[in-house]
Design goal:
heterodimer; A: alpha/beta; Aminopeptidase; 3 domains; eight-stranded mixed sheet; seven-stranded mixed β-barrel; 19% strand; disordered C terminus; B: disordered N terminus
Chain lengths: 587, 183
């Protein structure tokens, strides 16, 4: 009885072996690890942030797709296609088309040398970047920097796209499908999360004047952050590296004036009438998140003006904001929000600025641009934030309108002309000095090593543009860059303080998302048709082997025939041979 | 039987490791490879022991030992690589080649088993003994020779595979001829 049961069990095992195989194979397949990547690139995701409740950038991060290439391949609204395109080839219309087609992903190859791009392509890229930052999409958009390996992958995709695109007959297409190579891109980034502990840091440095009470201080303000579609690629040379550098240089120059005690020592003064420590204090403000509607400035103002105990700023007569000073080499625009009355310090300063420009760099023009504030939610210049708090403020910039350059990854250090920046800083410094001492002779206040120097501007610029300064990246608690920025400012000023803005949890004006960079892995893959053909080939091979084993006696006989005929002459074992071959056949 | 055969390559591979240590000072990698291949001669003895323990008639002995040995070798050497590698997203011809190679070496193993079995027989004509021995030794060093040839003349893996197939088929045919005299 036991034996019977055993037999039954054995039979069951034998008959259901294939069932087990079907059960076990997927398990085997799923637990086996995936192979290592052939090519890995670091990739930067398009920015994602919320400003005043509306979202910008992209929320997508998932990428696990076969690729197509643009331009060249037709745009198919498919959830399985990812498009790879060079930044120089991509136009705004193409980008918009891709988004409306709801493609599964866009990977943009950023050229290695950004500073060499010029002319129309530059404009086109800047236009595209604006489109990217003003839109919101769920399509994942990635930037990868051009390297040899990236180019290889691009070539592979291009070749397969070309072979597919031109193929006329169905058979040809099929052949290309079988023969060609595809590339599958897989990104390592998880879904982006809100950076809950993000904070925006603003640094204030003060040079304290001789007056006992710090009345009528002058504020020089700029934002130090930069912006571009890819957080890690925003070095922001002009916007607003130039402003930050100019501010630091001004602090350095004026620190000489403020280091002298009493009046008349004149150590920092080349001009006859200018000397000694000025009565007015100068405040330097480097605010964060300037590209996000001047959130850092906003917070600073709330802390300084709205609080009753610190009333320094309410007495200020002059706020000068510096922004993008090298966009136009020979122009300086003074942006104001309302007409300037005669006799105010602001008016004097602007006049001084014009005089200084005429004295130092006659080719430079200084123009006043008046522009009403349109909406509070999207200010175009930093001074408008001050203006909203009823503080007289101007922005000095070299661009006439809030320009396209402001948030571009083309804006690298090489974009900034150091000498030009130094010259403009010199103009501002002279105008400021003349306004401080209230003299009519403008343009002779600083000389020699005490003045604005090209070397100092250059080294400051190098420091500021040494790393991407996107607001997300600087949002950490103890950010090294902000710390060192504060240290630099502390070297030139009497006291520095840090203003921290933490976004409100419930009603945040500004929300950052993490996952700005990750790696994209490129796999060489074969199309699905290839798998089918390969399976058929393997099946036919196995069939052939099966037939060969099944009919092994034929092979055996063919091979042993001669020998057996020879040996039959001697030992007559023909019988045995044929017997064996039949046994092989049975097996 | 399968289990019995499975255990034999294990000491073989251990001896491989020992040889690696012992011949660390051998500068010429070719010599080292030669010694490593020579270790495979021990497999012949292992195969002989395996054959002597398998009951049954000649052809079943040979088939069992050969297939068992081949399976064991496959599991120990190629199985993991193919399993892990071929699962990857990237397609690579290497694994297809490896599978073909496994098929060829299966033929080789059955052949070796048959040769060892022939050697143990007493009714083989004395004139065939050298042929059997030479075939067995060629079988051992065949892999090494083909590898050297492939490396030296820079031929692609497919051609090398075809060469391997042809040589193995030729050796197999010779083996069948000798085998058919006694079976």
């Amino acid at each position: 009885m036991w034996f019977d049961q055993g037999n039954e069990l054995f039979d069951f095992c034998r008959t259901s072996f294939f069932a087990y195989l079907i059960l076990a194979l997927p398990i085997f397949v799923s637990i086996s690890p995936t192979c290592l990547a052939s090519k890995e690139f670091s990739a930067f995701r398009l920015q994602q942030f919320e400003l005043h409740g509306s979202s910008y950038g992209t929320s997508g991060s998932l990428l696990n797709l076969e690729t197509r290439i643009l331009p060249g391949s037709p745009m198919v609204s498919s959830p399985r296609r990812c498009y790879v395109v060079r930044l120089v080839d991509l136009t705004v219309n193409m980008y918009k088309d891709l988004l409306t087609a709801q493609v599964a992903g866009i990977v943009i190859i950023v050229p290695a040398d950004l500073s060499s791009i010029s002319g129309e392509i530059r404009d086109q890229i800047q236009e595209l970047e604006q489109a990217m930052l003003s839109d919101f999409t769920t399509v994942p958009v990635y930037f990868i920097q051009e390297t040899q390996e990236v180019n290889q992958v691009y070539q592979t995709i291009k070749e397969s796209a070309e072979s597919l695109g031109a193929a006329s007959s169905a058979l040809q297409t099929l052949f290309h499908h079988v023969h060609g190579n595809g590339v599958q891109l897989v990104s390592s980034l998880g879904s982006p999360k809100v950076m809950s502990d993000a904070q925006i840091l603003s640094i204030q440095g003060a040079l304290i004047g001789t007056k006992a009470s710090r009345s009528f201080p002058i504020l020089i303000s700029t934002h130090y952050d930069s912006m571009s579609p890819a957080a890690e690629l925003s070095f922001g040379g002009d916007a607003n590296g130039s402003g930050a550098v100019s501010l630091l240089e001004l602090a350095r120059v004026f620190s000489h004036l403020y280091s002298t005690r009493g009046t008349g020592a004149g150590s920092g003064a080349g001009g006859s009438k200018i000397g000694g420590r000025p009565p007015n204090s100068i405040l330097f403000l480097m605010s964060g998140a300037g590209h996000f509607n001047y959130q850092g400035t906003q917070k600073y103002l709330e802390d300084q003006v709205d609080s009753s105990d610190q009333s320094d700023l309410q007495d200020t007569r002059l706020v000068v904001c510096l922004d993008s000073l090298t966009t136009n080499p020979e122009k300086l625009f003074v942006h104001v929000s309302r007409s300037i009355r005669e006799g105010t310090m602001l008016n004097t300063f602007i006049n001084n600025l014009k005089k200084a420009a005429a004295h130092l760099e006659p080719s430079f023009t200084v123009e006043v641009v008046q522009r009403k504030i349109r909406t509070e939610n999207l200010l175009s210049w930093e001074h408008e934030k001050f203006h909203l708090k009823k503080i007289n403020a101007i922005t000095i910039s070299s661009s006439e309108s809030p320009s396209l350059v402001k948030s571009s990854m083309l804006d690298v250090k090489d974009n900034v002309d150091t000498e030009n920046l130094a010259a403009k800083t010199r103009i501002v410094a002279e105008a400021l000095a003349a306004s401080l001492y209230n003299v009519t002779e403008v343009g002779t206040a600083f000389s020699g090593s005490l003045g604005v120097s090209d070397e100092s501007v250059n080294s400051l610029l190098e420091f500021v543009t040494s790393q991407p300064r996107s607001a997300q990246l600087l949002a950490g608690k103890q950010n090294k860059f902000v710390q060192s920025l504060r240290n630099v400012l502390a070297r030139y000023t009497h006291e520095t303080s840090l203003f921290t803005m933490k976004p409100d949890k419930r009603d945040a004006n500004l929300v950052f998302y993490d996952g700005t960079s990750g790696t994209i892995v490129a796999y060489d893959v074969k199309p699905a048709v290839f798998d089918l053909v390969l399976s058929l080939a393997i099946a036919s091979y196995i069939g052939a082997v099966y037939l060969a084993i099944k009919n092994f006696s034929l092979i055996y006989d063919a091979l042993s025939y001669k020998l057996s005929s020879i040996s039959s002459n001697h030992t007559s074992t023909t019988n045995g041979t044929s017997g064996h071959s039949s046994k092989v056949k049975a097996q | 039987m399968l289990v019995l055969a499975t255990f034999f390559p294990v000491p073989g591979s251990q001896r491989d490791a020992v040889t690696l240590d012992a011949f660390q000072d051998v500068k010429n990698p070719l010599t080292l490879e030669f010694f490593k291949a020579s270790i495979d001669l021990a497999d012949l003895i292992g195969m002989y022991i395996a054959l002597s323990r398998i009951p049954g008639r000649g052809h079943s002995k040979c088939l069992t030992a050969g297939i068992g040995w081949g399976t064991a070798e496959l599991i120990l050497s190629r199985f993991l690589t193919i399993w892990v590698g071929a699962k990857g997203i990237e397609f690579n011809w290497r694994y297809i080649q490896m599978s073909f190679d496994a098929n060829i070496s299966m033929v080789q193993h059955i052949m070796t088993a048959a040769l060892v079995w022939l050697w143990s027989r007493h009714d083989v004509k004395p004139s065939f003994y050298p042929v059997v021995a030479i075939l067995a030794i060629i079988g051992v060093y065949k892999g090494l020779l083909i590898d050297i040839f492939t490396l030296a003349s820079h031929i692609d893996p497919w051609t090398s595979l075809v060469i391997k197939l042809l040589i193995t088929a030729f050796l197999g045919a010779l083996t069948i001829r000798v085998y058919s005299t006694v079976a």
